[in-house]
Design goal:
single chain, 114 residues, mainly alpha, 82% helix, 2 domains, flat
Length: 114
């Protein structure tokens, strides 16, 4: 489904614009986390016979939340770090995403395979 990915891109651009206009990033980061949690919680409630409108809507909600908060750490790094530190911070934070997902997948697999 392409709708969550498209909304992720649109809301990422919107969150960057809001941070540029207002100068505050914490409310955007928190609201993105809340919307993502609600969307993922709704996805968890899906059943085999659920209507397509339910799973599409839940994916859209989750995509909005993820997109709203996804690039906030990089935006903040570019605005508060010294110029020579921006590349280091960006590399570390972008490396964290796949590393954390891989580690949590291994841990989950180990816990649920018992």
């Amino acid at each position: 489904m392409q709708a969550p990915l498209i909304l992720l891109a649109i809301t990422t651009i919107a969150s960057g614009g809001l941070i540029s206009v207002f100068g505050h990033y914490v409310p955007i980061l928190v609201s993105g986390g809340v919307v993502t949690t609600i969307g993922m919680g709704m996805i968890y409630t899906l059943q085999i016979g659920s209507n397509s409108s339910h799973w599409i809507g839940y994916q859209v909600l989750a995509g909005l939340g993820v997109g709203f908060a996804f690039q906030v750490p990089q935006i903040v790094a570019q605005s508060i770090c010294e110029l020579h530190e921006v590349s280091h911070y960006t590399a570390i934070s972008l490396c964290k995403y796949p590393t954390t997902n891989t580690a949590s997948g291994c841990i989950d697999d180990r816990q649920f395979s018992k």
